[in-house]
Amino acid sequence: MCDINDNPIKLSVKWNGKEYDIPELSPSDSVAMLKIAIENATGVRPERQKLLNVKFQGKVATDNYTLSDLNLKPNLKIMMMGSLEEAIEGARTKPDVGDEVINDLDIEEEEVDVENQEIYLAKINKRVRDYKINVLNEPRPGKKLLVLDIDYTLFDHRSVAETGYELMRPFLHEFLTSAYEDYDIVIWSATGMKWIEEKMRLLGVSTHQDYKIMFYLDYLAMITVHTAKYGTIDVKPLGVIWGKYPQYSSKNTIMFDDIRRNFIMNPKSGLKIRPFRQAHLNRDRDRELLHLSTYLRDIAQYCEDFDQLNHKKWEKYKPDKNRTQHAGSKRKAEDSAPSTPKE
Q1: Of 68, 64, 80, 81, nearest in space to 9 by CA
Q2: Which of 48, 138, 149, 222 could disulfide-link 257, Cβ–Cβ 3.0 to 4.6 Å?
Q3: What is the mean pLDDT of the chain?
Q4: What is the DSSP letter of 315?
Q5: What is the DSSP letter of 16?
Q6: CA distances in angstroms from 246 to 117, 139, 206, 238, 277, listed in the order given
Q7: Is the pLDDT of residue 99 over 50?
Q8: CB neighbours of 87 closer than 8 A, spacing ≥ 6?
Q9: How many other CB atoms are found less than 10 A from the CB of residue 127?
Q10: What's the CA gap between 264 and 229, in Å, rounded?
Q11: Which residues pair with 25 in a beta bridge?
C-alpha cells in the first residue's frame, strides 16, 4: 500500500540574518535531500551545514533519516550555522573525511528489491506529474538515451585546482561529441539546478558546438527509498524520464554514475563508472571516457535491446557484428522486395 500521509512539508531556513523559503518536500524525503534543498536556496554546501533544530530523539539527525522520522512542525523555521562558498571555491579545498565516507557508501553487487515496490512507483508517478523540465534541445527521432552524473563522473569537484579545465575529466568533450551521434544526452546531478548550470558553463558543455544537452535534472527529480541493509537513500529513477518521454525505456537507455545506489531503481540500465578524483594526479592517465565511447558506439550499433546487456562487464563486451549485419541485410532485402498486390 502507498503511504497516504505524504502531504508536502513547508519549511524555511534562517541563516546569516536572512530567512529563505525551501521548496516543498515530502515526509518520505531524507535529511540529505533537505540539505540539498537548503544548499540550493542559500549556497551553503551540505557538509558545511549545522541544522540546530533538526534532531532525532534529542540528537543531531543524520542524513539517512526521513523527515517523517523527525516529526517536524508545520512551517518550521530551521536555524542553520554554516559558511558560504562559491561553486568552484569548494574545489580548491581538500576533501573532508566525511565527504569521502558518504560517497564511498555504495550498493554491493546483490540487487536490492525496490525496483517495483508500489510506494516507490507512486513517488515516480508524482515526479512525472509535478517535476518541470526545462528542455534545452528537443529529442531527436530514433536516438537512444544517455543519462550522466556530474561529480566524480565528469568533473572532480573537490580537488585543488586553479581552473575548471583542470577539474574536467580527460576527453570529456570528445566523449560527448561521440555519444551525441547515437544518443540524446541528459545531465542528472544530486545538487541544485543553479549549481548544475554553473558547472556546465564552467566545463564548456552548455555552449559546445559539436553536441547538445537535451535537459538537466536536479535533486528534486530524485526520490527517497528505504532498504533493509542500507537504510534510507536518495536515488535517480529513470522512470521519471520515461514517464515524460515514452520513446525512451530500459531497451534504449543507459545511465553513468560513480555511485551504484543512484540507479538502484533501474539496476540493469546503470553503469558504475570509475570515480574521477584527485584530478591533478590522475589527469594524465585517466582514459575511462575514451573506452566508454567505444562501448556506447558498439551497443548503439549492434544491440537492439539494452535489457540484454550486463553493464557490469562492459569492458569485456564484444558485439556480434555478423548477426547484426545479417539482420540488417535481411531487413534491407525485405524492404527492397517487390510488394504483392492485394486481391
Answers
A1: 68
A2: 149
A3: 82
A4: G
A5: T
A6: 21, 11, 25, 11, 35
A7: no
A8: 195, 198, 199, 202
A9: 19
A10: 13
A11: 9
- Phi-psi category of 252—alpha, beta or left, where left has phi over 0 and alpha has psi -120 to 50? alpha
Residues 6+ apart with CB under 8 A from 332: none
183, with CB counted inside 10 A (0-12, 13-18, 19+), is buried
Please give the Cα distance from 102 to 90 (Å, whole number). 17
Phi, psi values for residue 103, rounded to 5°: -70, -25
The angle subtended at Cα 233 by Cα 274 and Cα 164, nearest 5°, is: 40
* pLDDT tens-digit map of 100-143: 433 434 554 434 566 668 888 899 999 999 999 999 999 999 99
pLDDT band at 150, cuts 50/70/90? very high
Coil, strand or helix at 318: coil
pLDDT of residue 87: 40
pLDDT digit string, tens, across residues 183-198 = 999 999 998 898 899 8
Residue 69, C-alpha cell as written in the block: 522520522
Kindly compute the dihedral angle of the four CA atoms of residues 230, 231, 233, 238, in this order, to the nearest 10 degrees: 70
Angle CA 196–198–202, to nearest 5:
115
Pull the grid cell for residue 156. Answer: 572532480
H-run or E-run covering 202: helix 193-203
Lowest-confidence pick of 32-46, 110-124, 322-336: 322-336
Start-to-end CA distance of the chain, whole Å, equals: 55
- Say yes or no to pLDDT of 337 above 50: no
Amino acid found at 231: G
Percent of the chain residues topping a pLDDT of 70: 80
Burial readout 251-282 (b: 16 or more C-beta within 10 A, e: otherwise) = ebbbbbbbbbbbbbbbbbbbbbbebbbebeeb
